[in-house]
Design a protein that fits this description.
This protein is an alpha+beta fold. The protein has 2 domains: 88 residues, Phosphorylase Kinase, domain 1 (2-Layer Sandwich); 55 residues, no CATH class. It is built from 5 helices and 5 strands.
Length: 156
Amino acid sequence: MRLPSAIASFVKGGDIQRVDSGCSRASVSRITRPGQAVLFLKSAAVAQCVGLGDEAERLRWLDGKVQVPRVLSFLVEDDWEHLLMTGLPGLNGVDAGREDPSAVVLGLAGALRQLHAQSIAACPFDETVERRIERAHEQVRSGLVDESDLDEERRG
């Protein structure tokens, strides 16, 4: 993978491994460097409309309010968007769940409690049902949704 120079300087000398778990539509890589914190890089073609820019904005806004990865770089280059961020301590939920599924559930519940404790009035993002439906219509009109891939009950 060719990395933009702004990101390549962060990961120089690191071991880059693709992360195949999870549900991101972006390509995700884990970057380990001797004696330094783990980094994660998400990359996606702009045409895929993954929304890494939106993710970067939300992570920056949440930084200091709840425990989230710190955004080190977000950029768009050659029709690809790249989001480089720090890792968080601990195991991912899949690995942790193998030994103690209840701890994962309790951890997720605690994280949701922290998120829901944030002031709605201070949130700069419009995620109302009306706005989400409007965005969905925009994506359908733009040809970004394959309506033939919808469940039978959702077609038409």
